[in-house]
């Protein structure tokens, strides 16, 4: 059932020419970021920060495995100008809100039940994380998630935060 929902989300999303790649401008201002409660996430507040933009869902096992890694990165690197923005494509609001409350995540959670973000980045796998530099350019794209991905994302995020 969850696989069918994921496929439906991907099929329903407008097509994009190609997935985002390193060097592309991040589309942070092109698709509104809203919390599960409908409040706008201030994209301007992300300017000048290193951003880990993650497209995920509560029903996705690799997605759930990535979130504690991202929470640890937020705690470690947040004071140095780093933030995680996790964009959920969950269809059911109550499931998302319940999951977020139980998980104790402290970084911004956006909700995209219509699948606009997967289309904006050319999503090919769930989850997909983009590391975005302080100038707003994609530095790396991480489709899927394994322990090795967690290590690579952590190392890349640390390096970006230290970069001038």
Put the structure in a nutshell.
With 164 residues, the chain is of the alpha/beta class.
Molecular structure report:
- The protein has one domain: 3-Layer(aba) Sandwich (Glutaredoxin), CATH 3.40.30.
- 37% of the residues lie in helices and 17% in strands.
- Strands 3-2-1-4-5 form a 5-stranded mixed beta sheet, with helices on one face.
- The longest helix is centred in the middle third of the chain and has 17 residues.
- It is globular and about 40 Å long.
- The termini are far apart.
- The N terminus is likely disordered.
Task: Give the helices and strands, then pairings.
Elements: H1 2-12, E1 50-56, H2 61-77, E2 82-88, H3 93-103, E3 109-111, H4 116-121, E4 128-132, E5 138-143, H5 147-162
Parallel strand pairs: 1-2, 2-3
Antiparallel strand pairs: 1-4, 4-5
Helix pairs in contact: 2-5
Key phrases:
single chain, 164 residues, alpha/beta, Glutaredoxin, five-stranded mixed β-sheet, 5 strands, 37% helix
Unreliable stretches: 3-17
Task: Indicate the CATH class.
Answer: Alpha Beta
Number of strands: 5
Q: What is the spatial order of strands in the main beta sheet?
A: 3-2-1-4-5
- Oligomeric state of the chains? single chain
CATH topology: Glutaredoxin
Q: What share of the residues does DSSP label as strand, in percent?
A: 15-25%
CATH architecture: 3-Layer(aba) Sandwich
Total domain modules: 1
Put simply, the count of helices is 5
**SSE ordering:** HEHEHEHEEH
Helical percentage: 25-40%
Shape: globular
Largest sheet: 5 strands, mixed
Structural classification: alpha/beta
């Amino acid at each position: 059932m969850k696989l069918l929902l994921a496929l439906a989300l991907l099929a329903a999303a407008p097509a994009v020419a190609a997935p985002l790649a390193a060097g592309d401008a991040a589309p942070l201002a092109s698709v509104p970021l809203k919390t599960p409660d409908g409040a706008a996430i201030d994209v301007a507040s992300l300017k000048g920060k290193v951003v880990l933009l993650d497209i995920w869902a509560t029903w996705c096992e690799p997605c759930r495995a990535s979130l504690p890694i991202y929470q640890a990165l937020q705690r470690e690197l947040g004071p140095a100008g780093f933030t995680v923005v996790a964009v959920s494509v969950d269809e059911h609001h109550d499931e998302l809100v319940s999951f977020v409350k139980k998980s104790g995540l402290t970084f911004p959670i956006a909700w995209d039940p219509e699948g606009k973000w997967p289309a904006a980045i050319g999503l090919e796998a769930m989850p997909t994380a983009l590391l975005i530099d302080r100038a707003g350019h994609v530095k790396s794209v991480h489709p899927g998630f394994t322990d090795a991905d967690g290590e690579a994302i952590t190392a890349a995020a640390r390096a970006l935060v230290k970069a001038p």
